[in-house]
Design goal:
Keywords: Cell inner membrane, Cell membrane, Membrane, Transmembrane, Transmembrane helix, Transport. This is ABC transporter permease subunit. It is a multi-pass membrane protein. One of its GO terms (biological process) is amino acid transport. The chain has about 260 residues and is an all-alpha fold. It is about 75% helix and about 0% strand. The chain is built from 14 helices and no strands. It is flat, with a radius of gyration of 24 Å. Residues about 1-15 and about 25-35 have low confidence and may be disordered.
Amino acid sequence: MVIDFAEALDVPRGRSLVIARCCTSRRPAGVSGPGVDFSFFGAVLLELLPGIPVTIGLTAASLLVGGLLALVMTWARLLAWPVDLLVRLFSFTLRGSPLLMQIFLLYYGLGQFAAVRDSLFWPVLRQPVWCAILALSLNTAAYTVEFLRGGLAAVPPGVVEAATVTGMSRFTTFRRIIMPLAIRQALPAYGSEIIIMVKSTSLASIITVSELTGIASGIASATFRPMQVFLCAGAVYLSINFLLSRGVARLEGHLDPLRRGTLP
């Protein structure tokens, strides 16, 4: 039986035929069991390469939008109590519900309202990539607000009092004194959030976004080798997260005067 892997995977025929040859190659005489086909691993990695920029792009866009939203909401929590209550409710709702459900509500749920379909936002909301970015951004914003809240609580009161004595306005004190100190305190926890967001992008494959997991699922369905395919995909995720964790660690060392060996 011959399987057209190029058609099944909907990717350029040249690379898909490499996987097809790996799947249809005969084992040497006397070898039993599945064995280890290293050429297949290499072919799968080549197929997964187009999904890496998509995964990184989803992560970067979500962290950027979510980070900006978190900064705004963190500032809003310092205002009147009704605004603080709304931010708390937003954070509790998104942190307490599954991210997959939030993606489904945005991608499948909003389209049932005629007002949404007739709005200017519908050309964006009908696209799975933008729905995934929106869901991931709102989710990470809910967590980042709490990280920044913990960082704000760790800012010494004397620093704020000193800024007030020098004549700084409330906004200037928040922008130049409070927020930089809060970010430094929240950075270790936020580093974990970055890694979680990289892994969370795999949920975008549920709504047909062709990132790493989506491509891996298509290859596994076409080749009937899910173990090898998802091991390759997991290795790619692990490599990305390793580089990100090293980058966050270096940034922590740069922002911490004690670890940097200098005093402010």
